[in-house]
Design a protein that fits this description.
With 247 residues, this protein is mainly alpha-helical. It has two domains: 52 residues; 179 residues, Up-down Bundle (Growth Hormone, Chain: A), CATH 1.20.1250.20. The protein is built from nine helices and no strands. The radius of gyration is 24 Å and the shape is globular. The N terminus is likely disordered.
Length: 247
């Protein structure tokens, strides 16, 4: 019996460093044998204290992670939608036509479709979501710079391929992280926050892109895109170093 109680005490001490709520529930299960009164004094009361401590720490981490992801989504969606209002005019300016514009977009979607499934499965198997966000957003910033140096339709196709690769790396990793870091009982509200920011960002972008391109030229828009994607990459970098549990 003493050995059983000693085992429980050791498990309690580890409770504050757990990073999974399922493990907390597992630890709260009473032993199959032993004195129940001793169990309550040595196991239940300390467990309630540590469980509360763990829950507060865990919820704080989840909230901070979700807020960071929403910030990343906002800057990213503004950057990605800056091109839409000026895209046709931009393609014409580099010697393309409507067929060029359609082909470039088709190549972008084809690359995303070809890679996103593999990207999601890789992240699910190796738990590389945060690293994929960092790589993907830096790659998005590079794709934005490629628009600056693009001079003909062939280079535009290359730029769209780079953009497609970045989106394929980011999309499943972001969705997986966001889904895992939603507070208990707030799933619908959290996704409402996500889509609200997405559409507000798109609305702001539509006005901003037209104003900036008309007054400062296309390159100003592309450098703005690059800066926003850089901010998203820095947000992902912050997320990577954000401690997931209290030490």
């Amino acid at each position: 019996m003493f050995d059983i109680l000693l085992l429980h005490v050791r498990r309690i001490r580890k409770l504050g460093n757990l990073s999974c709520q399922n493990e907390v529930k597992k630890l709260l299960a009473p032993p199959s044998s032993g004195n129940k009164k001793v169990f309550c004094v040595i196991y239940v009361f300390p467990t309630v204290f540590y469980k509360r401590r763990f829950t507060l720490c865990y919820n704080k981490y989840v909230k901070r992670t979700k807020q960071t992801l929403l910030f990343i989504q906002l800057t990213s969606i503004i950057a990605s939608n800056l091109l839409a209002p000026i895209y046709a005019v931009y393609v014409k300016g580099i010697g393309g036509d409507l067929m060029t514009a359609g082909t470039a977009i088709a190549m972008n979607y084809a690359v995303i479709g070809a890679l996103v499934i593999a990207s999601g499965r890789f992240a699910n198997k190796h738990h590389t979501e945060k690293i994929q966000l960092i790589i993907g957003y830096f790659l998005s910033a590079f794709a934005a710079y490629c628009y600056v140096i693009t001079k003909n339709p062939t280079q535009l196709f290359f730029t769209q391929i780079v953009s497609g690769i970045s989106i394929a790396i980011i999309s499943p990793a972001f969705s997986g992280l966001f889904s895992k870091n939603i507070e208990e009982g707030k799933h619908t509200a959290s996704w409402g926050d996500y889509w609200g920011l997405t559409y507000w960002g798109a609305a702001v972008t539509a006005i901003t892109a037209g104003f900036v391109s008309q007054n400062y030229g296309f390159n100003a828009v592309f450098f703005f895109m690059m800066g926003l994607n850089g901010m998203s990459a820095l947000g992902a970098l912050y997320l990577y170093f954000l401690p997931s549990k209290k030490k």
